[in-house]
Amino acid sequence: MPDTKVYLLDGGTLVIDGYHAFWNRGPGGELRFPCYSVLIEHQDGRYIFDTGYDHDHVQRVLPFEKPLQTPEQTIPGQLAQLNLKPQDIDYVINSHYHFDHCGGNKYLTEACTLCHAKELEACECYQPFEHLGYSDLSFAPELQAKRDGAPAEPALDIYTPKFETVTGDQEIAKGLWLFETPGHTAGHYSLMVELANRRPMLFTADACYSQKNMDMMCISSFHLDPVASLQSMARLKELADKHDAELFYSHDPDSFPTYQKGSAFYS
Q1: How many angstroms separate the CA atoms of 217 and 223, rounded?
Q2: CB atoms within 10 A of CB 2
Q3: DSSP letter at 52?
Q4: Residue 162's pLDDT is what?
Q5: Could you tell me the pTM of the whole model?
Q6: Domain for residue 36, yes or no?
Q7: Does any domain span residue 263?
Q8: CA gyration radius for the chain?
Q9: Tens place of pLDDT for every residue, the chain, 267 residues?
Q10: Which one of the listed residues 100, 136, 206, 252 is annotated catalytic?
Q11: Is residue 68 included in any domain, yes or no?
């Protein structure tokens, strides 16, 4: 049985204000932060956890986030560096459906998409203040057409994604764990990967942006439920202690440079 391998796929960067990254704590001013995806080569297939943002969408809808993304930092570009094609991916797991975590789903048309049942519901029925977060539904043309009351985009209308929804904590494959960490969104998941030769890797996704957020126990301003968000951060600490897992943060400009990326992998 081959060992599980984990690759981190660099998806470029975005900008937010420090008061959004560290809710009401700051300091304020522009903070440029990374976005990345997680590729898992497993005996049961290839999984991608989150797919980053789509540059054209952000430039059109959220230009104030100043996206910096080269062609090599798209999902196809990152996979090509590993001699893979989008068609080689079997499963996409989305921690949640904010635009910077699902923008590359549209390339992975052969994959089955896993998400929390509440998250798929939120795409159609989100709170008004979540509008920009859920602004990119290109991964689900039928949902987008239904929400917008307009025909699906011609370039995407041949794409009918296969969704599999789950709830609760789940071991979706041997050593691949989804843990419920709601608050940032209604159906947010974090992912833990058990490996043969190192500590488990626990990917917080947006339940915790950075080590600084965790140290301060300070959530970001983009949340559905701030109390649940804090509870999920505390849960991540507990899970890391319980499983002796290393936390990998979703948008940490300080930690990200220390992560192995590209053709380097964890196993």
Answers
A1: 14
A2: 9
A3: -
A4: 85
A5: 0.94
A6: yes
A7: no
A8: 17
A9: 589 999 999 999 999 999 999 999 999 999 999 999 999 999 999 999 999 999 999 999 999 999 999 999 999 999 999 999 999 999 999 999 999 999 999 999 999 999 999 999 998 889 999 999 999 998 887 777 667 666 656 555 555 678 899 999 999 999 999 999 999 999 999 999 999 999 999 999 999 999 999 999 999 999 999 999 999 999 999 999 999 999 999 999 999 999 999 999 999
A10: 100
A11: yes
Residues in the chain: 267
Q: Is 247 within 8 Å of 258 (Cβ atoms)?
A: no
Residue 265, domain member (yes or no): no
| Whether residue 100 lies in the annotated active site | yes
Q: Buried (b) or exposed (e) across 121-160, using 16+ Cβ within 10 A?
A: ebbeebeeebeebbbbbbbbbebbbeeeeeebeeebeebe
Alpha-carbon distances of 238 from 84, 175, 178, 234, 243, rounded to whole Å: 36, 18, 15, 6, 9
- Tokens (6 digits) for 221: 């301003």
DSSP 187: T
Range of the domain at 193: 5-258
CATH of residue 150: 3.60.15.10
Distance (Å, whole) CA 153 – CA 144: 9
Encoded tokens for 80: 């090509």
Tell me how many domains the chain contains.
1
Render 212-250 in DSSP notation, one character per residue: HHHHHT---S--S-HHHHHHHHHHHHHHHHHHTPEEE-S
Helices (H) and strands (E) in the chain, counts: 8, 11
Distance CA 38, CA 104 (A): 12
